[in-house]
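#data-curation
PF: Archiving a pair of folding outputs for the training set. Convention for this channel: one message per protein, sequence first, structure tokens after, nothing in between. First:
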Amino acid sequence: MLLGDTALSSSERVKVSYVFVILAISIALSIGVVAVATVLLILGGVANFKELFEVVGALGVPVFDAFLLIASLAYVIRGRLHELIGFRVSTGLVGAGVLWGLGLFAVNIVVSYALSRIIGVEFSSKIYEYLISYELIKYTIVATAVVLAPLAEELYFRGLLYTSLKPKIGIFWASIASAAVFAAAHAMPTAFITLLVIGAVLAYVFERYKSIVPAMVAHAINNVLGVSVLLAIK
């Protein structure tokens, strides 16, 4: 089912202010959990900084994405927005997502390489290479990147944020704006442009198929390939 007039009128129910509240709460809760965990570990007499960093580092991203997923799902269910975001699974949609995911990874590599040559900044995810040197962080990064992030981030950034912005500023600017927030939320300044391009492509995929499923699958494929390359290099 494509998004028809009914779905389009329903998009007015996705309030931009509510959507940003979800993001703000998710950020605040994840920071709060990390802060509390840090205090408890220090009070518990954690042996050294490396042990503290490993535990706290393993919490940050998965906790954020978990809160984002829960809050977004609650908003979708409460607002009966499942048809609006096209939350349905079919062989065609999954297959399209796989193909777009392969293309997205290629775009990821090309854009990252081009920017590294133009700006002179290393875009080879050095920060991730450092983080996965810690076993606990490595496992949480893999699980989050492959499973949690595609679900939570696509549901929120494309399913809710993009959908809420589209009736107000149009498809193009909604794609750019939602992609910019997506890139900024990763808190990696050197990868902002790459993430901006990825976010815009994922918004296009969502808009083209009128379903969040291909975008989720594409996001997952891109992350699986990225993590695989990172682990192989490491």
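PF: Second:
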Amino acid sequence: MDRLRTKFLGKEMSSPLVLPAGVLDISFSSYKSASENGAGLITTKSLTAESRTGHKGPVVTEVEGGMLNCMGLCNPGIEEGVLEIERFRKYSNAPVNVSIFATDEFAFAELAKKVNDTKADFLELNLSCPNVMDEFGVPLSASEKVVTGIISRVKSVSTLPVIAKLSPNVTSFTKIASAAAEAGADALCMINTLGPGIDIDIETGMPVLYNITGGLSGPALKPIALRLIYECRKAGLTLPIIGMGGIITGEDAVQMLMAGADLVGVGTGVYYRGPEIFGKINKEISDFLERKAIDSVGSVNRIV
């Protein structure tokens, strides 16, 4: 029996692990590598209508408990981005989740239409990027009204299941998550990076990041991600959840499942344990399941 196999929104997956948006580059070879190393679901970088170069470097710095990044949504644009899915499909049938970013419901809907005719399996709405606040202001998911408008508009045109990626930088996370569910989201992805935050080089007296601020990812996020997922389940939300934030080991992944996640995203962990991290975590999850005589990841008991 393969204890790691699971199903998400009707799609069979070889493992519960997800490559989140923005972790690797946009090329099909990166997707192929992550899939071969054990990721059950591949997410593209967040694609915009036109290509974006992102922010000037340095855009990443390691801090105590994690990393700060201000990539700035660098991507080749929707047209080129979806072509990489076609190339990836020549090597793998692993489910693909296309992430998109825009500034209003109409622009999101136009991007969604361009994904309809691809070989993607899911559509993820990035409503939560914190490292472009200098350009676009607070995350879109800070407003129930905005979340409702975007998801409703996208659902009216999309032929794919819609996943809403939410930000922890809000005053009432469960209200935002509930608004996303009521608007028709098929699943939730939580959480994006926290912040933004600042790191300072005391020798130069300057911020380390060129953009000054960046979103915090890594182990420091895990307790917050676990708590927000738990609160959503406690509030009665039944939508499938992709949980992420500080996942480095199999133990971390099992905690995420116990908090109420259905799948587990591994992002910053790739920098800590290399691209082989997916296989390593899969083995650690399998060892736990075997030790506890649990048939599958879907049978892990939740704390709610």
